[in-house]
Model the fold of this input.
Amino acid sequence: MGSIAVVICAYADERRVQLAGAIRSVRTQTRRPDRMIVVIDHNERLLEETRAAFPAAEVIANAAARGLSGARNTGIRAAAGQELVAFLDDDALAEPDWLGRMERHYDDPAVLGVGGKVVPLWEEGRPRWFPEEFQWVVGCSYRGLPEGLHPIRNPIGCNMSFRRMVFDAVGGFREGIGRTGQDAAGCEETELSIRARQTFPDGVILYDPEAIVRHQVAGIRARWGYFRRRCLAEGRSKRAVAASVGARDGLAAEGAYVTRTLPGGFARGLADTVVRRDPSGLLRAAGIVAGLGFTAAGYLSARFSLAGLFPAGGRI
Done:
């Protein structure tokens, strides 16, 4: 296809070991990237230590605003000249054929971006109450996504790639929507993907479940408090996306999720309790109801306060 850069963004001292694993997983790809760029988000000590530990990688400082969107945009600028830009989180591990499986789809000129499956690696085991329909809370693929190769609205942030021309045409990730430090916000990849499709209406973004990344889920993210906080933040982020790109495009995928995926998961949880005599099924059903309620509450709380805050286009 052409040249590919992989961008990994990091900020946390406590995730050095995970970052090292992510870098190694990129270095051992069967389709080696032409460049690997590690962006350190406003952490000078981590920047110097990562440069020393991985001299073969391009380790640079985030030159934009603090946060994941700014760090990704710094990586995009640094990857100038590469035809494709792929993104991997600092706590994720790419399967050896990850990059090659995404690259093959770009032979089709209509493909704007490709995302893959994100499998959770639970540090403390999966909580019995945690519904699969809400695995997006921990940045992983969730029940309701396609089971085979299929167009989607947006990929999951820790396993995605885009053509360079997308960023040239629409700008970068919008700062003010994505994650900043311990803030549980998200949706920056959703907003970017929608702008890309609005600019290239004949283009597609593909989901390939064979392009696999394994996402390490820290114990704290498997707890009820984080679940609640992340759902509330997702609701606020959805409102920001709707204010930026329009409610019709911004919430198009949520209709099927709320009307089909979540009711199906609720019924499945009840059936597990009644038929399989699994009491945790009732907990999962309750988790679906609570997660939907928290997310809706976050959206409604931001409905008026976020309108008009985001100018058109991201910055790179």
In short: The chain has a mean pLDDT of 92.
